[in-house]
Design goal:
alpha+beta; four-stranded antiparallel β-sheet; 12 helices
Length: 367
């Protein structure tokens, strides 16, 4: 669509929307009954394309129980079984859910409450954190690529990031969610470390290989608030994309809406109380030379909101990082040569943000 199509001037309406500094929640609070054109997706994009016999096709995102290897009494057989399941999920789905991961349920509930508390507090308290970039360690916005995004997603988000070398400081985080964001990020880093060990073993490598490649170095948290939508068939909560990360851990509430593209079908990822959704990111697909799959996913808009989700990306994309990555040498052979060019994470991220709405995976540019 051109900037100006009929009476719809996208840039003008976008500028007006941004200038309100109230986000999507502001639209809902104003009791709108129709979704503004800025948020309209083509009907073909929103189409569910889910087969009527989906139950017979067994299209269910794998669920993996980590309890056997988190109780301190693990045996080699139990660990090998978990590694085998993770290998299968990472290769064939790019997604799986983990249960019995040892992150306390109280912490999971508190982070959801903290995210909701921030988004539902008085606008004047939120405004100082409003930004359309990563100029601060804590930002509040509709999208960090709002001027590239067309159409806009039906959600508001706050973003915060830290690294093993430069962790988040309490004073950088709003009071509404300060303590729980720090506590939650510490638990997620620990779980991420375990998952990277298991993924390393699933590649047939030493358990510390991925961690030693600094896959765990940076953590970017996107804390989403999806307000109820008056016309959910016209828009999406999050448009189709793959993740700019090595690995992503997602906590979603009971409302649901997350879908994964699998065998050309959109498959629901149903909420499981206390579970994390785990997915492979673009960087992981690249360094594993297509052994593991970064797959497209999206979030449908809903009428029942607000929906809360917390996505944690293991990626140093917002930090200076001169490390050059490419397919892991131990995975290559004459029969399996490198399929990708080398890259740096900042270089990849700049292109990803500028091109992530072209309708194809940005990763394909590095083949």
């Amino acid at each position: 669509m051109s900037e100006k199509s009929g009476e719809f001037n996208r840039l003008k309406e976008l500028t007006a929307f941004v200038s309100t500094r109230t986000g999507v929640k502001g639209l809902v609070d104003a009791e709108i009954t129709e979704v503004p054109r800025l948020f309209h997706f083509p009907s073909s994009t929103i189409s569910n394309n889910t087969p009527s016999n989906i139950s017979k096709l067994n299209l269910t995102v794998p669920i993996i129980d980590l309890g056997e290897i988190k109780n301190g009494n693990e045996d080699k057989t139990a660990r090998n079984d978990v590694v085998s399941k993770i290998k299968d999920a990472a290769e064939n789905w790019g997604f799986f859910q983990v249960i019995n991961h040892s992150v306390p349920l109280t912490v999971l509930e508190e982070i959801k409450k903290g995210v909701r508390r921030f988004h539902e507090q008085d606008l004047e308290v939120k405004k100082p954190y409003m930004s359309t970039g990563f100029d601060k360690r804590f930002n509040y916005n509709n999208s960090f690529s709002i001027y590239h995004s067309s159409p806009l997603n039906w959600r508001d988000t706050f973003t915060c990031y830290g690294s093993t070398e430069d962790p988040l400081k309490p004073e950088e985080i709003p009071v509404a969610c300060r303590d729980v964001v720090i506590e939650y990020s510490e638990h997620v880093m620990e779980l991420g470390g375990l998952l990277l060990q298991l993924l390393s073993e699933a590649l047939g490598l030493d358990s510390e290989v991925l961690k030693n490649m600094d896959c765990l170095k940076g953590l970017l948290m996107l804390c989403h608030y999806y307000p109820p939508c008056p016309q959910p068939d016209l828009t999406l909560g999050t448009s189709k994309h793959t993740d700019n990360s090595f690995l992503t851990l997602l906590l979603q509430d009971q409302i649901g809406g997350l879908q994964v593209l699998h065998q050309d079908y959109w498959v629901d990822v149903p909420p499981i109380p206390g579970a994390f959704v785990v997915n492979i990111g673009d960087f992981m697909q690249l360094i594993t030379n297509d052994k593991f799959s970064s797959v497209e996913h999206r979030v449908r808009a809903n009428i029942d909101g607000p929906r809360i989700s917390i996505a944690c990306f293991f990626s140093s994309s917002v930090f200076p990082n001169s490390t050059v990555y490419g397919p892991i040498k131990e995975l290559l052979s004459n029969e399996n040569p490198a399929k990708y060019k080398d890259f740096t994470i900042p270089e990849y991220t700049a292109g990803y943000l500028a091109n992530s709405f072209e309708g194809r995976m940005y990763l394909s540019n590095y083949r």
